[in-house]
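During the no-cost extension, the postdoctoral fellow (Dr. R.K.) reprocessed legacy sequence entries with the updated structure-token encoder. One reprocessed record is reproduced below for audit purposes.
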Amino acid sequence: MKSIISFFAVVALSYSAHAFKDGSYNCRSEKSGYEVNYEIKSISFNGIVMPHLEVTQVHPANPEDPTSTEKVYVTKGLATQFLGQGGSEILGLGALRVEMKNGRPSCVK
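Re-encoded structure tokens follow.
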């Protein structure tokens, strides 16, 4: 199963250029078994630089169970995107979070 979902992260705090670097990343949730491919691109809005998180692919690690209803969450700043079954919904913090680790985003439980 592959989903293409775009998500503009609008955050209340100003975006630090050193916090999340632009680029392509990959995360995997050990709990749900989903793999998430995403890109971070900086955008400027009224002179304020903010992150743009675009999720390019979401798919289960076990291709024999493409109908899995496990939830995968990717968080960026104060915003959260629910990914799965081709839908999207703004929710609270979940099982998979993308945070800084050794200078680059990484998955944490």
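The chain has one domain: 5-12+20-108. Residues 5-12+20-108 form one domain. The remaining legacy entries will be reprocessed before the final report is submitted.
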